[in-house]
Amino acid sequence: MPRSVNAVARRARRKKVLKQAKGYFGRRKNVWTVAKNAVDKAMSYAYRDRRNKKRTFRRLWIQRINAGTRQYGMSYSVFMGKVKANNIELNRKVLADLAMNHPVAFKAIVDKVK
Q1: pTM of the complete model
Q2: Range of the domain at 63
Q3: Which of 63, 89, 94 is CA-nearest to residue 76?
Q4: Cα distance between residue 8 and residue 74, in whole Å
Q5: CATH code for the domain of 36
Q6: Which end of the chain offers a freer environment for a tag, N or C, measured as fewer CB atoms within 10 Å?
Q7: Structural domain includes residue 2
Q8: How large is the C-alpha radius of gyration of the chain?
């Protein structure tokens, strides 16, 4: 009895991986084994960095809020403590945007919590 293989599914699987490897340099874009390893590595980096992106943006927002509050003689931690105590429902992303792009509005918040 002949060996049963599913060439259609195998070809589709390989085409999918080679399509994902489009734009890679050298043999990574057209040799199956090399492309498969490159795509697996890229997918693991993408998964990891979707989480790292959240961390780095939070760090950036904290730095911007800190820089904004220092102008008015207050540290970041004191400012955030007073924001929470005064029940101001603004997250770090919004506060950082105000500190960067709308300094008058940010100053009003700082004055309110002082």
Answers
A1: 0.80
A2: 7-113
A3: 63
A4: 66
A5: 1.10.1900.20
A6: N
A7: no
A8: 25
